[in-house]
Structure formats: structure tokens, C-alpha cells
Design a protein that fits this description.
This protein is mainly beta. It has 2 helices and 11 strands, in the order E-H-E-E-H-E-E-E-E-E-E-E-E. A hairpin with a 2-residue loop joins strand 4 and strand 5. The chain is elongated. 23% of the residues are buried. The structure holds zinc ion.
Length: 152
């Protein structure tokens, strides 16, 4: 049984806990969710010991609940993270992050002549193979593997 004491960082009354973050991805997630602009309480822990995963990172955001669309964008940088939704100090929902069908303005196109690299516009990628992490640019058709992507 999972006990509250497993949560290294202090308990949250209400909000979202993002757990099992690879240590090198913590600040990428901060950036993706624009937590630097968040006015609610944000707690970031990194290089925490985890029995199952070695070292890990964790982010707690008070009073924020992310949409499935926002959460799915995180799958691009770390497919295995887990979100816990906390209400009144209880975990009311756990979400496993999965790749979405479409990525809006998350990934930069690797094709230098692609219109998205030459005009002030958002990128759109279709995830064509979720198992292998292949995505395709809506505008030029360039395929990219999740291992090689650059974020917008
Ligand atoms: Zn493109």
C-alpha cells in the first residue's frame, strides 16, 4: 500500500503533483507548463532518492489542474511521468501521461525550409506512431523521432 510518507515533499492541500520526472527534465517541464509565470505556490524537488527509480524529480503546483491537452504535451519530454490530482489532501486521481494525436506548438520542425521556421507561426505535429514516438510536421511532412526533437 502506498503511504503518504512516500511523498518526499510536504503534502499539498489542493493541486497537482508531477512525479517520477527524470532529473534532467524537471526544468523542461517547468518551462512547458510555464510555471515560471505561475502565481500559485510551486514546489520543485530534484535529485530526490526513489527506491524504484533511482534519482527523480517532483513538482507540486498548488491550486492548479491541467487540461488533458496540457498534460499530453509533457509526454514529448518524458513519457513515463505520473500526475496526481490532490483535493483536500487526498489523491483523487492519478494520470499516466500518454502521447497525444497532435502536438500544437510544442515541437520545432527539423526542416530548415519548413514554413514554421520562416514565418512567425505555431507548429503542428501529428503523432503517427505512438509506440515508436514518430511525429510528422503538418506543413512540410517531415518526420521526426521523439528522441531527436527540439522544443519550440
Ligand atoms: Zn515542417
Amino acid at each position: 500500500m502506498e503511504k503518504r510518507k512516500d511523498l518526499v515533499v510536504a503534502a499539498l492541500e489542493s493541486g497537482t503533483v508531477i512525479d517520477h520526472i527524470p532529473t534532467d527534465k524537471v526544468f523542461t517541464i517547468v518551462q512547458l507548463l510555464q510555471l515560471d509565470k505561475c502565481t500559485d505556490q510551486v514546489t520543485i524537488g530534484n535529485n530526490l532518492e526513489s527506491a524504484k527509480f533511482g534519482k527523480k524529480g517532483i513538482i507540486k503546483i498548488a491550486n492548479r489542474f491541467f487540461s488533458d491537452a496540457e498534460i499530453s504535451q509533457l509526454a514529448v519530454v518524458c513519457p513515463n511521468i505520473r500526475l496526481c490530482i490532490i483535493k483536500d489532501y487526498e489523491v483523487v486521481e492519478k494520470k499516466q501521461v500518454t502521447l497525444p494525436d497532435e502536438l500544437d506548438n510544442v515541437v520545432r520542425c527539423a526542416n530548415p525550409v519548413c514554413i514554421t521556421n520562416n514565418e512567425p507561426m505555431k507548429t503542428v505535429f501529428y503523432v503517427t506512431d505512438k509506440v515508436n514516438g514518430i511525429m510528422k510536421c503538418r506543413y512540410c511532412g517531415k518526420e521526426q523521432h521523439i528522441e531527436n526533437i527540439k522544443l519550440v
